[in-house]
Specification:
This protein is mainly alpha-helical. It is 80% helix and 0% strand. The protein contains seven helices and no strands. The longest helix is centred in the first third of the chain and has 20 residues.
Length: 138
């Protein structure tokens, strides 16, 4: 439901459903359990997106960092899929005016994307674009 509400641009409804899902995940202590931890990471990522759409910037950062922590707990520090989550963290920092943290996260995301996807991938271009936007915002 939370993801459907996000796709239909109903972030308030999505937020309610995703907060409920987060409570269930937290109550079940899923850290280190692969499938459950990846589910928790997905829920927190979607929660971060909902918070971003509602301009709840600090909550978005908290949700994206939580998602990243769950992913790292089961995939390890060097897994290529972390690049997109780190990119989301960077976006949230940037939206919150935390440009130094945004730049650090964008650069880490860029490094990971270039390593796993190659220099000419569209996702690399997106990250470079966002790095340029941070330079303009400073």
């Amino acid at each position: 439901m939370g993801r459907v509400n996000l796709r239909e641009d109903k972030p308030e409804q999505s937020l309610t459903v995703l907060k409920e899902a987060t409570k269930i995940i937290e109550a079940n202590d899923v850290k280190g359990k692969k499938t459950a931890s990846l589910l928790a990471a997905s829920i927190l990522n979607n929660l971060g997106i909902a918070h971003e759409k509602l301009s709840h910037r600090k909550e978005a950062i908290h949700s994206f960092l939580g998602s990243l922590n769950y992913k790292v707990s089961v995939l390890g520090e060097d897994h290529p899929s972390l690049a997109n989550t780190i990119h989301n963290v960077a976006n949230a920092y940037s939206e919150n005016g935390q440009y130094d943290q945004a730049m650090e996260a964008y650069n880490e995301s860029l490094r990971r994307k270039q390593s796993s996807l190659g220099q000419n991938h569209p996702s690399v271009a997106l990250t470079l674009n966002n790095i340029g936007a941070v330079h303009l915002s400073r």
